[in-house]
Design goal:
Elements (H helix, E strand, L loop, with lengths): L1 E4 H11 L12 E4 L5 E2 L16 E5 L8 H6 L4 E8 L3 E2 L3 H10 L3 E7 L6 H11 L10 E4 L14 H19 L4 E4 L1 H7 L9 E4 L5 H4 L7 E9 L7 E6 L3 H11 L2
Parallel strand pairs: 4-5, 5-7, 7-8, 8-9, 9-10, 10-11
Antiparallel strand pairs: 1-2, 3-11, 4-12, 5-6, 11-12
């Protein structure tokens, strides 16, 4: 693991330029624990493996009902993105439990919203704000945008220009409230169909379970990569999504300093 003290972190940030927000408070110490994860259905990576990245974490929702956050943290869960809301009227029933548990265990945590294409973006943004606290030190909020072909209520497929505008509205509202720009999580087909690459100033969290994102997403820049949905993590019952951060341990410390409140 690596421990980065506050003076060293400040020197790193100074070399990289000013933080995104003047109010951002970098953590006094960033500890990266090497992951002790397995995969129930591992991929024979044709290119760059996720193992080359040192900072691993998870995302989870109501499907992960039993989590020993202390054990998960000790085995390399350095961050967690937790599902909070969906559409304009659904709250994940495990959100508060996961949010509290991750925080108590010292896991860097952020919340995400699953977007419904049948509701206005502004309405969904207000729903998220209503249920996700403005917590100092939280990771940036995430807008999860995918097609929903199996939804019982909304299978609408809007054109790319409309979807990009709806995403912009959602991001703008959350940025004004939380003080930092949200990220977008998406899948390969949705990214290509809606031409999300046309959006300016967007930080991406990308799903790619068969190859490295660099080739799958045509070289688009990304901060997080979801590389499996069949991860096995000590402390978490059943399978869970596993992700990596795009850079080194030092880059992780710098990213946290610039992105956290």
């Amino acid at each position: 693991m690596i421990r980065t003290t506050l003076p060293a972190l400040l020197l790193f940030l100074a070399a990289c330029g000013p933080a995104r927000h003047d109010s951002a408070a970098p953590p006094s110490e960033v500890t990266v624990i090497t992951s002790n994860f397995q995969d129930a259905d591992p991929t024979d990576w044709p290119g760059r493996s996720p193992d080359r990245y040192p900072v691993h974490g998870i995302d989870l929702s109501r499907f992960q009902t039993s989590v020993d956050w202390g054990q998960a943290r000790a085995n390399g869960v350095n961050f967690a993105f937790i599902k909070a809301t969906e559409g304009g009227d659904r709250v994940d029933p495990m959100f508060e439990t996961h949010w509290r548990g991750a925080g108590q265990a010292g896991v860097m945590r952020g919340a995400y919203h699953f977007f419904y294409h049948c509701r206005p973006a502004a309405e969904q943004a207000r729903w998220f704000i209503k249920h996700v606290p403005k917590t100092p030190g939280a990771l940036p909020p995430v807008l999860d945008m995918e097609w929903t072909p199996t939804s019982p209520t909304c299978t609408l497929r809007r054109d790319g220009a409309t979807i990009r505008e709806e995403a912009r509205i959602f991001l703008d509202i959350l940025e004004r409230h939380y003080g930092q720009r949200p990220m977008i999580y998406t899948t390969v087909d949705f990214f290509q169909d809606t031409e999300l690459w046309r959006m300016q100033g967007v930080e991406f969290w990308l799903r790619s379970v068969a190859d490295h994102p660099h080739g799958v997403y045509d070289g688009i820049s990304w901060s997080f990569w979801q590389y499996t949905s069949t991860g096995l993590v000590p402390g978490i019952a059943g399978r869970v999504d596993i992700n990596v951060f795009a850079g080194s341990k030092q880059a992780w410390a710098g990213w946290l300093g610039s992105r956290m409140q």
